[in-house]
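As agreed, record passed on underneath.
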Amino acid sequence: MKTLRVNEVMLPKQNGGVTGDIEDAAGENEEPNVGQKEDAQSVDGSMKRDYRDDKLMHTVLDSDKKNIDKSKAIQEASSQNINTFSPDLAFSKITDNYRFAKELYGDTLIRQITGYDSSYIERNVNIPEFQRELRENIKQNVDELREEGLIDDEYEVTEKGEEFAALSLIEDELEELEGKGLIGSKRSQQRHDKGEVIGTKRYSRSEPYRNIDTRRTVKVATRRGRQTVKKEDIRLKDKESEGSIELIYLIDTSGSMKGEKIEMAKKAGVGLTYKAEQNNDDVGLILFSSDVHTAVKPGATLMNISKNLVKARTKGETDISRGLNKAVSTFTDKNTEKHIILLTDGLQTKGKEPIRTLLPSLDKLLHHDIGLTFVGINMDETGRDLAQKIVDHVDGDIHNVNSIEHLDGEILGSYENL
């Protein structure tokens, strides 16, 4: 079988296929039997970058288009906490209580595994003849996923399935961002002293004053609560550092982020990584709730980030302090500007006094000179008040996203403003 090497992963060229898939879904308040060790923390190091060249991206997507289309169901299932695929269970859930099935699977996933619009199923779900056709469609679509190696004989997603789901996620987001005009141009790069300015470093007496990065210096002093600049606050434009900015995209994956919120958070992560790579910046990823589930060091590839995003599942409470602490230790020791983009839809739910619980973590950001942008989804007054206290403490920025469909634009905008 002819193959195409992409990002050190061998992807077989395939011929046909229908979209579809489903999971071994749990009850309303139960957690599904996840086919992965979700609570195990993993840190992935920097890897050689791919997907810098748009022509390569289009070659990859065109060559495996049909498998990528089929993997959209896997991508959607992950955002609904659907981890394994059983056609009999899917049929049972849909025909026994369709309203509950819609809440469990979501309209998009139901359409992908059945081939019918949600409204059509709702009108006909109790008709025996339609039920027979529905059962056959679900079985056929799930069987095709298995035949292509995207799920195994136990209906669990395979590594190949995760890879194609990641490609599907990349394709969807880049097409959407291109349509919105949000990608395509590189951020202008400054030059200084006959060299490219791509980072900052600390001041020493041997350095000429013209090399002082005024904006960065003032920012450091302000974060430390000073009204005057001290020597230890001074930052210089560095022509030898390997990247201008290290970013960590810190995503709240607590239970309330299930569905559209986590789906848009994943897409925003793809757009952020793609744009940062264009600007020679490094992106890392941390997924957290009441614990940290995934940690990827800045400098990972777009494919690596996307695969980890696909694996994200929502559960538990929100412990922002745990996420921030992990972010501090996940940054590399390179002499670069470091910044966290935190995305959450709720309050710090661990601890009785949220701001007091968070203060030690926020002080770590100040000590390590790490910037913070707080992006909140539909925050209420209490949430906005806490977010404001957080960013005030570290001299950060705050964004409240009221329309979830604009989340990727907000994330890219916060990055461009760094």
